[in-house]
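Problem 12. The chain below contains 212 residues. Write out its predicted structure in token notation.
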Amino acid sequence: MTHSVAAVDLGATSGRVTVGHVGPNELRLKAVARLPNGGAMTPQCNGAIDDGLRWNASGLFEHVAGALREAAAREPGIASIGVDSWAVDYALLNGDRMLGEPYHYRDKRTSAGVKYVHAFALAIVRASELAHKYVSTVHIVGGGSLNELLCQRTADRLGQTVIAGPVEASTIGNALVQARALGAVSDTLEGMRDLVRTTFSVRQYTPKEQLR
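Solution.
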């Protein structure tokens, strides 16, 4: 049986609300609305001009609520709603009142991070060592999979194959988790992966030069 679900995906620079139609051999996504979600420099502390880059969480909530109303109007049979976002930021609360908009993870306080390619390679090597398992293929999903230079350089740096895609990884996972809970798709991880493989295309990058 096919179910309709609503997936709210809040990315680093934009968000979206998507309706997914998911069944044993079906996975279709249709975007309902895109949401502004880039953070803003706001005076939060004693009127300071530059208090840092913060999320507009209050405004974002209103945008999401409006988009979900539109989704329900288009698809009255929505069975569930799932929300996914960056899980590295937080807001301080006093009871049910938010004391201030949360800092954005791209705020200048965290700008001293290492370069992406080196960070990817280092994380993969360390994860492989900790798990005592050899990694032969690296999967890059989400928006980063559209960055051809990033994907190729990661393959070059590691000397391993990189599979890029699907782009809408967060929304796909969101919809599949809901569908699994509703009994609409296989309850095994491999079964859900097979559904994604047969529905969405990916791109393969092989090492061209060894980078250190």
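Discussion. The helical segments are 57-74, 116-131, 148-158, 169-182, 189-199. Students who got a different answer should revisit the alignment rule from Section 12.3.
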